[in-house]
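The instructor's notes for this session suggest beginning with a concrete chain rather than abstract definitions. Hand out the sequence below and ask the class to guess, before any prediction is shown, which regions might be ordered.
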Amino acid sequence: MINEYSAINNPFNYLSNHLTRLVKGRLWLKVLIGMSLGISVGMLIGPTTGWFEADTATTIGNWLALPGQLFLTLIQMIVMPLIFASVVRGLTSSESFEQLRKMGIGVVVYFVLTTTLAIIIGISVAMAIEPGSFVDANSLKITAQASAASASPIQATTPTLSELPQKLVTLLPSNPLSSMVEGQMLQVVLFAMVIGVALVMMSAAQSKPLLELMASLQEVCMTVVGWAMRLAPFAVFGLMAQLTTKIGLNAILGMGVYVGTVLLGLVILMCVYLLLIFLVTRERPFHFLRDTRDVLLLAFSTSSSAAVMPLSIKTAEEKLNVHPSVSQFVIPLGATINMNGTALYQGVATIFLAQVFGVDLSMGALILVIVTAVGASIGSPGTPGVGIIILAMVLETAGIPTAGIVLIIGVDRILDMSRTAVNVCGDLVAAKLMNRWMIKTEILEPLAPEHQ
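After discussion, reveal the predicted structure:
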């Protein structure tokens, strides 16, 4: 039944070709230029020079950030239907139900293990470097308290052991439309998986109309994503200008050790990925980086793993020789539940803020942080800035004031871009490893190599 769908045009081709043109047009370089210009303009307007009154500088910064806010809104608006349609079609691209079952179990186990490893790396690096000891804790606490007084608090609750069974039941949405409206990504993904498996079990004649509808929905979403991509350099310029206008360059530079700690952790995680690629597939790490360079640069530019998902699938299939049935299942799922870069960042941020506020984390508290971060990362939308929202839950679990988020939100834009590139790299590695495993277990036949 499922093979009949191979005749349907791949809906990812439309946007992946457009995204490829953006990469060849050096979108990533334009984004870096926009970031530099944004910081420069923000310095001129903000407290660094003192040329403008605070109210005037805030007004100018808000107007400069308008393209950035529009970019974020477009991505957030379209990510839910895009992920839903992609997961459904990814499931139905499997060549057999046995393949779907085995691949589903394998990829979920892999995602949970690597996410756990990522946050352990983040915690370990932060505890070794102790970035919280390099900042003026007293002034940062005063800043956090002042900012928290004017900001609405972020509520995050952790279920007790007695509440856990009910929480697990509610993961499956009783009202899928309500879950979409409320942005409950994990519930939407589970609903999409139920629909996808049901379509696999149906006859081709019955399921084909809905699959064609999903393909059309994908193309609509990708058209909107294409519009958003054109705004990326202006978005980064405006957001960085607004940020520097509010807090000044000195505040950003003062967080340099924290930023360096997160980036070091991300580099270590990337090395782990490359080691896995070499050990499992015997492919040289340099070749893997060369083949995935374009999509990683685009992910860095857009801060959205969901936005670059079509190019990720195209890269996996055309450059990494991954079966379409694997890439179209693993990568859309990975864009939702494989947030290793984000999990690592949460580990570093938690330890950093614990050091700033003088919170002593026991081994039990660290284990609870790891479990909470893994659970919170799974099902989070692959959209810009979502890491901050997840971090609130992790901090609440560890007993660290969530007001501390205002201390690190100033440099989050740079870190968001970096960790998104690592998230996308993790999706591609997962697709490559899963493809190798499926071939080794003789569920899939190896594809003819398209490149050396």
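Then share the key points. The two ends are 34 Å apart (CA to CA). The longest helix spans residues 204-254.
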